[in-house]
Protein: SDR family oxidoreductase
Amino acid sequence: MSNKTVLITGAGSGFGRETAFLLAKKGYDVIATTEIVAQIQPLKNEAHALGLTLQVEKLDISDENDRLRAAQWSIDVLVNNAGISEGGAVVDLPEDKLRRQFEVNVFGTILLTQLFARQFVEKKQGKIVFISSVAGLTTDPFAGAYSASKHALEGFAEALNSELQEFGVQVATVNPGPILTGFNDRMFEAWTHWWPEDKIDTVFDYEDIAFPHEQFHPFQVSDIIARVVSGEITQYRNVVPAEIIEGTQQQMQEVWAREVTTEASRHPLVQKAYDIDPETPNGC
Structure:
């Protein structure tokens, strides 16, 4: 059992919600935060049905007032889980969507982290866990904005890891791969919310494009996050599932030997995005 307090952003659904439940079961005091007020009561009800107690609060990380209010809470671990995904080719992505991608995933996350990092520095202890993505290490077509935002988080996490070491503050990342939660598929449907004029004369036909990877069951991600929080896992970077680690490392290394493309040909992942069905599970 633990008497430590963990703040989880984006706990209204997905990894954040499941991690909140797992940590509450382990005895942590969990502050589970949601982007909107409407998510609060359903999360409380679900926790109650499981016999768990959560402190559920509204925290839109892109809202300065919400961030300042949250900074009044005393916590031991910050889990930066909240994030959005804007799909679309770099050449087609509307400016407002691109800016929103970074406003939430980068600026909202880091501005909140700054507030708690100062709290941790004063206490000479604390832990910051970034729920990044394998997209923060590699990049797929049609996910450039999301991937760039996660690459930015990786850069901030690396810097914080070095800067806060002398104050006893721990930093770690969790990098989920293609996980079948609906998040990846909704990213590839984001174009349906573009302004009508932004849908005109796009380079790619988004009605025919889907997330270009088979996807894994989500249960293992929340388990890894909880174990990183508890210290059962001490690695700085945690790619999940384990089956994709080697391929991810190879993809990262491939860039060093890549040559500039000299002939016009469709990239294999672009073609796969046209060929694959949405929400295709991995057969493993």
Q: What stands out?
A: The longest helix spans residues 95-123.
